[in-house]
Design a protein that fits this description.
- By secondary structure, the protein is of the alpha/beta class.
- The protein has two domains: 5-178, Flavin prenyltransferase-like (Rossmann fold); 187-404, CoaB-like (Rossmann fold, 3-Layer(aba) Sandwich).
- It contains 14 helices and 19 strands.
- It has an eight-stranded mixed beta sheet, sandwiched between helices. The chain has a five-stranded parallel beta sheet with strand order 2-1-3-4-5, sandwiched between helices. A two-stranded antiparallel ribbon has the order 6-7.
- The longest helix has 19 residues, at 386-404.
- The two termini are 34 Å apart.
- The relative contact order is 0.09.
- The chain binds cytidine-5'-triphosphate.
- Cytidine-5'-triphosphate binds at residues 251, 270, 272, 274, 276, 303, 305-307, 323-326, 342.
Length: 408
């Protein structure tokens, strides 16, 4: 969102305190944010909080000469990439329906030519009221976008629909509206996390993958308008909203889930760290140390190499296949050679190669640095967050998908 100019309109509801976190999230994503508040919003949160966090003057009074000179009640909407209103109260939405412009938020919306996103929050009965529902329909018919409200425990102590969506979710909806929708109409199957190969009912052989890279890829595809099936090994991460999550444990389960879903995929990205071996025997009850002696032996057998299977079995050139090569070498030339070998051996279109031996990248880290290797050459992606790496991979994949056109 670097360079995006966002107007955050704050309505007068108790959820206004959450718009402070939304502001922080938007600023963190690189946006320049101007805050406009209704009079009633100021009862809930002080404008100084928004001013400090946005680094910009806050628009609170239509008739303050200084503010009008600094911001201008019409100019606040000029040049805005998007207006997001959080919380959008029942009253505020009713005023938007009527086309009123009697406060900094409604006047910004009336003068806007950019997309407007509303995050409603109110009591469940106010939300369900026919007047509010009709207002929502009218605003949606005028092209405004909505995120939430969510179900849950409300500030008024009722339980039901009316909670402001979480700030991270609203920020994601903003990012989605501002992103190129180059994955619209595309379905991407992504594997994530590590697998667990059982030894007995309580023990397993596993690896250090957390799923961060695969989940970042899933989030990035959704942001760019695509559909995602995410086949995930055990992970503590929350699946991004809008993805179809298939949870698995073992390499065999992951293989079945991917084979079942591959038909509808335009591209498959194997970000998972799949076990290459599993114990030949899985004990049905807990193994006891006195029965195992001092140096027990575990006999292993190969698992199916899912990516190689996908490469060998694909008909024509669909779906596009992206593999990862997690290597423990810091020598870029050696890394490239290993990646090229995997590209050929597993018959895929792209290998994302990275060095997992450095502590600032790879497994469990929030960052990575990768080489994108295809038959046409390679491209270095410097150390960046896994979200940024995900978008770099998708940029590359998007070009390949565009060149191929729609899947028959
Ligand atoms: N992979 C897979 N099925 C397996 C093992 C790996 O689909 N049983 C996929 C991974 O998801 C990744 C790619 O293959 O996209 C490379 O995995 P990696 O572990 O780096 O390589 P291996 O093929 O296992 O080879 P090696 O262990 O010799 O490095």
């Amino acid at each position: 969102m670097a360079g995006a100019k966002i107007v955050l309109g704050v309505g007068g509801g108790i959820a206004a305190y959450k718009s402070v976190e939304l502001l922080r999230g938007l600023v963190k994503l690189g946006a320049e944010v101007r805050v406009a508040m209704t009079q009633s919003a100021r009862h809930f949160v002080g404008e100084l909080t928004f001013q400090t966090l946005s680094g910009q003057p806050v628009f609170t009074d239509m008739f303050d000469n200084q503010q009008d000179a600094d911001i201008g009640h019409i100019r606040v909407a000029d040049g805005a990439s998007l207006i997001v209103i959080a919380p959008a109260t029942a009253n505020l939405m009713a005023r938007l329906v009527a086309g009123m412009a009697n406060d900094p938020v409604t006047s910004a919306v009336l003068a806007a030519t950019c997309p407007v996103l509303l995050a409603p929050a109110m009591n469940v009965n106010m939300w369900n009221n026919e007047a509010t529902q009709r207002n929502v329909e009218t605003l949606a018919a005028r092209g405004m976008y909505f995120v939430g409200p969510d179900q849950g425990f409300l500030a008024c102590k009722w339980i039901g629909q009316g909670r402001l969506s979480e700030p991270a979710e609203i920020a994601e909806a903003v990012a989605q509206l501002l992103s190129a929708q180059d994955y619209a109409g595309r379905h991407v199957l992504i594997s994530a996390g590590g697998t667990e190969e059982a030894l007995d009912p309580v023990r397993f052989l596993g690896n250090r993958s957390t799923g961060k890279m695969g989940y970042a890829l899933a989030r990035a595809v959704v942001r760019r308008g695509g559909r995602v099936t995410l086949v995930s090994g055990p992970s503590t991460l929350e699946a991004p909203k809008g993805v179809q999550l298939v949870s698995v444990r073992s390499a065999a389960q992951m293989c079945d889930a991917i084979v079942n879903a591959r038909q509808k995929a335009d591209a498959i990205i194997m970000a998972a760290a799949v076990a290459d071996f599993r114990p030949v025997q899985v004990a049905t009850s807990k193994l006891k140390k006195h029965e195992l002696g001092n140096s027990p032996t575990i006999v292993l057998e190969r698992t199916v190499d899912i990516l190689a299977k996908l490469g060998a079995e694909r008909e024509g050139s669909w779906p596009l296949l992206v593999g990862f090569a997690a290597e423990t070498t810091s020598d870029p030339t050696a890394l490239l050679a290993l990646a090229r070998k995997k590209l050929l051996a597993k018959k895929c279109d792209l290998i994302v190669a990275n060095d997992v031996s450095a502590s600032d990248r790879g497994f469990a880290s929030d960052q990575n640095a990768v080489q994108l290797v295809s038959s046409e050459g390679h491209e270095d992606v410097a150390l960046a967050s896994k979200d940024e790496i995900a978008h770099a991979i998708l940029d590359r994949l998007s070009r390949e998908l565009q060149a191929k056109g729609p899947r028959a």
